[in-house]
Amino acid sequence: MSVIYVLLSISISVAIVFFVAFITAVKKGQFDDGYTPSVRMLFEDELVKEQQKPSVKIKKTN
Questions:
Q1: Is the pTM of this model over 0.70?
Q2: How many domains does the structure of the chain reveal?
Q3: 43: Cβ–Cβ under 8 A, 6 or more apart, which residues?
Q4: Is residue 19 part of a domain?
Q5: d(CA 7, CA 14)
């Protein structure tokens, strides 16, 4: 029976640690923007193509 008390106290301690870690992550702004990363993943190729266009320079030879 004492094993149940030990396991229960360990599980409650771990749950409290994870809850505190979650609260600190929320306070630091970890979960502020949940929409932009998913959209950025879809349009990442277009952003890379647009950035490469201005960097290409064509030299004219006479």
A1: no
A2: 1
A3: none
A4: yes
A5: 11
Provide the domain limits for residue 42: 2-53
Residue 33, judged by CB atoms within 10 A of its CB (0-12, 13-18, 19+), counts as exposed
Are 25 and 31 in contact by the 8 Å Cβ rule? The answer is yes
- Give the pair of three-digit tokens for residue 25: 């992550």
Instruction: Tell me the per-residue pLDDT of 9-43, one tens digit each, with 9 for 90 and over.
Output: 999 999 999 999 999 999 998 888 767 777 777 77
Name which of 20, 40, 17, 37 is nearest 28 in CA terms. Answer: 20
pLDDT given at position 55: 55
Question: What is 15-39 written as a DSSP string?
Answer: HHHHHHHHHHHHHTTTTS-SSHHHH
Whether the per-residue pLDDT at 6 is higher than 90: the answer is yes
